[in-house]
Amino acid sequence: GENVEQHPSTLSVQEGDSAVIKCTYSDSASNYFPWYKQELGKRPQLIIDIRSNVGEKKDQRIAVTLNKTAKHFSLHITETQPEDSAVYFCAAKSQISNFGNEKLTFGTGTRLTIIP
Amino acid sequence: DSGVTQTPKHLITATGQRVTLRCSPRSGDLSVYWYQQSLDQGLQFLIQYYNGEERAKGNILERFSAQQFPDLHSELNLSSLELGDSALYFCASSVTFRTYNEQFFGPGTRLTVL
User: Fold this and answer.
1) A68-111 residue pLDDT tens
2) What is the pLDDT of residues A30-44, one digit of tens each?
3) Which residues of A touch B54 (CB under 8 A)?
4) C-beta pairs of B109-112 under 8 Å, 24+ apart in sequence
5) Contacts of A107 in chain B (CB under 8 A)
């Protein structure tokens, strides 16, 4: 089955600097890669996603890149702000049966701390 | 607020007991997913239902079962509870089961097994 690895597990950056979180996946058939942000004690929320037919997607200060050949994708946050402090999860959607059933496999998370 | 509701918020019980967690999806969503979030294991997919039928199964233990009712709410039943079952259990919903449909997460139920 699909395996998603996420690095680093913790990341501290100065406010205003950029943060990069990287994920690799194992199933070359995975075709959808969402990123979720989870603030302390709250639910995961989708912040950006990318489909396998796209190499890069940007939404204001957040961007995601996908390299299908290398099977890795990354989250980039520029001009970081204190409210960016949270745990970020990458995920990959893969097929788990011949009947079109799919599931999201999550990475283990990156705790991002923005230092004021 | 995602529109997904979960009850109860917190549950404290003893080993060997059985509990039921409840989830109501967003209005109009037909697909419900259950996830377990442990401290050291991130978000683990348990099971998915679509319009009342089981659609996909993940790493769900045999002691756990779920169902989705005609009104589309879902229940996750955990039995013969062990200390290791202590975790945050999230329900998520999406419009259908299609690949690119966003999953909206509920606030979670924190289960503590003593």
Assistant:
1) 999 999 999 999 999 999 999 999 998 776 666 778 999 999 99
2) 999 999 999 988 999
3) none
4) B109/B6, B109/B7, B109/B8, B109/B9, B109/B10, B109/B11, B109/B21, B110/B9, B110/B10, B110/B11, B111/B11, B111/B13, B111/B19, B111/B21, B111/B78, B111/B85, B111/B86, B111/B87, B112/B10, B112/B11, B112/B12, B112/B13, B112/B86
5) 42
